Model the fold of this input.
Amino acid sequence: MDERPVATEYSSTEVLPTTILIVDDMPENLGVLGALLRAEGYEVRAANSGAVALRYAVQEPLPSLILLDVMMPEMDGFEVLRLLGESDVARNIPVIFLTALSDPHDIAHGLRQGAADYIQKPIQPEVVLARVRTQLEVHRARQWLRNQNQYLEAEVARRVAENRLIADPDLGGGRHLRHRRSGRHQLRESGSSLPAGV
Done:
């Protein structure tokens, strides 16, 4: 019987993928956030518009997290988030909104649209790092669960296929058993003795 491990236990000591995409139309914001995150060992990619962000979000190495400014010209953060959600490649990347908006309705709207969290501007470095760490950990846990689900689905499909082979004589598995039984039956009818163990 094929014994394969069902799951590897989730471990908090695994190395995290650490590419973070920062999206902001203000160069000084990109500089401050980039320096802060690089000092913590993260790889940083910066985009100064929504259009550039959408390109970078699907390029290898894929970002593990996107910090996305809400108020940008041409394409605001809400639109970028919507388009990310339509991408097969980028839809599972968590997005933290960077916003100077203080209206709870705006914040709630962003969360309803699929943002994982938000950070209020002007930023506080300790808050940024804490929320980045939290979302990276959540993202990693979700990836692990997705991988386990894919493995289990493949394993169920494999076992269902094996059971069909065994149950259906015309698919091969049962035909061999049927031929062996018919061979025994013919020997008994001819009066010949069966060898031991058959």
Remarks:
- DSSP finds six helices and five strands in the chain.
- The two ends are 23 Å apart (CA to CA).
